[in-house]
Write a structure and sequence with these properties.
Length: 801
């Protein structure tokens, strides 16, 4: 079984193979006859004895610079080619790191059919405050943006959420926070092509310019298209899991002298099946305890519409206005749930099993609008002002009915009720940022206002039988939160040292009010959030970075909502209006070897962070999942990251983490005893990209993820792993793309979660459709030509890269 091979062994084998390859590099720069850099040119190293045999290849960067790594000592023929320029050949001898003097390409005719294409490999770089995963024009530039996010080093998917170091992440796009739920974010990124992604920045200790709330930040930087005029695409995919799913989409881009317009629309009709098997041992240590065993199935049907529009207008070189919008519309999304629960250990109940059927229908609307203006100063620096508005509406209807049966199959009880729930959320933010170089120091500062207004209500009908069990069922909840923030930071580079210091202050004013319970939660507080980064570059091959940040985790406003949402009358989720924000302190020490091996030692004190905890009531035979502040939460570990080209056609990237996690919480159903849940675990992630044809039009990828243990609140995860395989073929001179992806080949991603301590013993195994086969097709049309100084050249080579 795959689970028997921990990634620590893979790590050691992977690092050991490094000694089998030489460490020589070849650096150079390509320019035109007018000394302009040549980007995206093919740079190929051929065997000197056999000039048709390709040893290694790359493409030049935007600056015209290129880098060939892991070159064995030998004689080679360096070949440089780019459409519109004469081919350049130079014989070189390599026995140490080599820097080639500037190469000038001459204009001339070029035969595209003779050019060998080598796809650019993803590039990982470490700066003073983040790791940048550069994927533009790489082997990852196919599929969706969601696929890239899942392959980003250190990212783990846990119960549908993206996490870094066991903490939920905040996603930004071009340094703008995405105000979407987890499912909406996934829908958005699945409809956004990976070819639009330039890089992903993983910021474990975010600097002062970012909000102090949350854990790590994933900042997605998008590309700026180089082709003038109009181009577009239509695409679709078919996914076969337990049941089939479809997605259809179209993207359009137009670039003029001043105005750029991008528009995208995706329609995703889906049917999804989720199955659980679970148990609850009520009073497991007592003579008359009961064991309930349940089989659950949920069928979800949805028809999500997702549209994006981005407008960029350049008044001149120094002034730019940007507008973007995202619209998500999901009407008549239905959840059909059925649960059969058997009383394996009878105890003193008058029934031996019960069956619950529930139907839930939701209508979701989410509209997000962004407006940003940037002015660049003539002598460097810029000032920008932006505003964001999100409006989220949800209507939710639920019907629940449970029949209780005796041992001979007779109905002994029936409980039924209906609910209607509404939620109306308005989010507004305004921000102004200023950056400027002051001598040798870079300075930035800014102000931000965030306002959240939420109105929600839940109303129970025909619930007389339920009212005997619970009080205050129907309720209205009003929540208003305002955060006023200001920040300043400064950074400076020396020959071997770099330093960056920042300070952010945030004043929070919030009010939550429950009408039925007459509970009022009013909080006002001011907190300072310092950040500090120090980097020392001992040499080109060795650098060290030490960073620290103080962060805050505020309860999500829906977590403060005291409503109960029932699976059945014995099982429900509930919010907690008494939740408090938690302060965390995070410190990280990084060592970078040869610019490609990254070692991070970290410690995080998350304080009294909010968490979802499950508690079973052994007397009333119910289980509730509620939001509560932990008493203590901390983690520490060692992360290792390395990416390299094994051969000219094989790129591999390894991320491994050895970590310790622990949560201490108050066991409210166990005489308020303090309980600590802790683990020592290993997380491994191996990604491989293959160029399977000489012209680069056929490629593949193979990825493997393994987690030995994991915790969430009081729950422990069993080990789980994911092995996935994908292929991509471009057709008709890159006009079309055909893809095949097989996810979770061995169906090992789903795993069991167990909460077992004192008088608590419950567990569930959620079986979602993680194993599937997906076939996709994309067709590009429109203008694929690049204009450069009145000269028109075919841009197909750039597209194929």
């Amino acid at each position: 079984m795959i689970r028997n091979y921990p990634p620590l062994l893979i790590t050691l084998l992977f690092l050991f193979t490094n000694s089998l390859f030489a460490q020589h590099t070849i650096k150079g720069k390509l320019v035109t006859e007018t000394n302009n850099p040549v980007a995206f040119a093919n740079v190929i190293l051929l065997d000197a004895q056999d000039s048709t045999s390709v040893y290694k290849g790359t493409i030049s960067e935007d600056s015209g610079e290129f880098l060939l790594e892991e070159i064995a000592s030998n004689d080679y023929l360096l070949k440089v080619s780019f459409v519109g320029y004469e081919e350049y050949l130079q014989q070189i001898s390599v026995n140490s790191d080599k820097k080639i003097r500037k190469i000038t390409l001459k204009e001339g005719a070029s035969n595209l059919d003779e050019v060998t294409i080598n796809a650019r490999k993803p590039k990982i770089t470490r700066s003073i405050d983040r790791i940048t995963f550069d994927v533009e024009n790489s082997t990852l530039s196919s599929g969706s943006s969601w696929d890239i996010l899942r392959q980003t080093p250190g990212i783990i998917m846990s119960q549908g959420q993206l996490q870094v170091r066991n903490s939920n992440v905040t996603v930004y796009i071009n340094d703008r926070k995405v105000q979407l739920t987890e499912s909406e974010l996934q829908t958005l990124l699945q409809s956004y092509s990976a070819e639009n992604i330039k890089s992903i920045e993983v910021i474990t200790n975010p600097p002062a310019r970012y909000e102090a709330e949350g854990g790590a930040i994933l900042n997605i930087n998008t590309t700026s298209a180089i082709s003038p005029g109009y181009k577009g695409s239509v695409e679709g995919n078919y996914t076969q899991g337990i049941v089939p799913k479809y997605q259809l989409g179209t993207s359009h881009y137009w670039k003029g002298d001043k105005l750029n317009v991008f528009a995208n629309y995706t329609f995703s009709p889906r049917k999804e099946i989720k199955r659980d098997d679970s148990y609850i041992n009520f009073s497991p240590n007592e003579e008359f305890g009961q064991r309930w065993e349940s089989d659950f199935e949920r069928v979800t049907r949805s028809q999500a519409h997702n549209a994006n529009v981005i407008l960029d207008y350049d008044f001149d070189e120094n002034n730019k206005l940007s507008f973007s919008s995202n619209l998500l519309f999901s009407p008549d999304k239905t959840f059909d749930n059925s649960v059969r629960t058997d009383i394996a250990t009878q105890g003193n109940t008058p029934f031996s099993n019960f069956m619950t059927d529930s139907e839930v229908t939701t209508d979701d609307n989410n509209v997000a609008l962004d407006l940003n203006y940037t002015h660049s100063f003539e002598n460097g620096g810029n000032i920008s002002a932006g505003a964001h508005y999100t409006k989220f509406d949800q209507e939710r209807d639920q019907m629940v009915e449970t029949d209780y049966f005796s041992g001979n199959g007779e109905i002994v009880d029936n409980i039924a009720f209906n609910t209607e729930a509404i939620q109306d959320i308005n989010i507004f933010t305004a921000q102004i940022d200023f950056s400027k170089s002051l001598g040798k120091m870079a300075f930035e500062s800014g102000l931000k206002l965030s306002s959240i207004d939420s109105e929600s209500g839940i109303y129970f009908f025909d619930a007389e039988s339920l009212q005997y069990l619970y009080d205050n069922l129907s309720d209205e909840f009003h929540y208003d939160e305002k955060v006023y923030a200001a920040y300043a930071s400064a950074s400076r580079d020396w020959e071997k040292w770099s330093a960056k210091l920042g300070l952010r202050g945030e004043y929070t004013d919030l009010l939550g009010e429950s009408i039925s319970t007459d509970q009022l939660n009013s909080q006002e507080y001011f907190e300072l959030f310092p950040t500090a980064y120090l980097q020392y570059r001992a040499s080109d091959n060795h650098s060290f970075t030490l960073d620290y940040s103080r962060r805050i985790e505020r309860p999500r406003y829906e977590s403060l909502n005291p409503f109960r949402y029932f699976l059945n009358e014995n099982d429900f989720n509930a919010g907690n209006p008494n939740l408090r924000a938690a302060i965390s302190n995070n410190i990280n020490l990084n060592y970078t070897l040869l610019g490609q091996y990254f070692f991070d030692v970290y410690y995080r004190d998350n304080g009294r962070s909010p968490a979802s905890l499950a508690f079973q009531d052994n007397q009333n035979l119910t289980i509730r999942r509620m939001q509560a502040n932990l008493l203590e939460s901390k983690s520490y570990g060692l992360d290792i990251l390395h990416g390299r080209s094994i051969t000219g056609w094989w790129y591999a990237q390894l991320y491994a983490s050895l970590f310790h996690e622990e949560n201490t919480f108050l066991a409210v159903e166990s005489n308020n005893a303090e309980v600590t849940n802790e683990i020592d675990a290993v997380f491994g992630q191996l990604y491989n990209a293959f160029t399977l044809s000489k012209d680069g039009t056929f490629s593949g990828n193979l990825s493997f993820t393994y987690v030995s243990d994991y915790i969430s609140g009081s729950y422990n995860f069993d080990p789980f792993s994911t092995l996935s395989l994908g292929f991509r073929k471009t057709l008709w001179n890159n006009r079309a793309e055909l893809s095949l992806n097989i996810n979770d080949i061995f169906n090992d991603t789903n795993t069991r979660l167990t909460s077992q301590y004192l008088n608590q013993d419950n567990s569930y195994f959620a079986q979602e459709e993680m194993r599937y086969v997906q076939v996709g097709f994309k067709y590009n049309f429109g203008n694929f030509r690049l204009e450069d100084n009145q000269r028109s050249i075919d841009a197909a080579e750039r597209d194929r890269l």
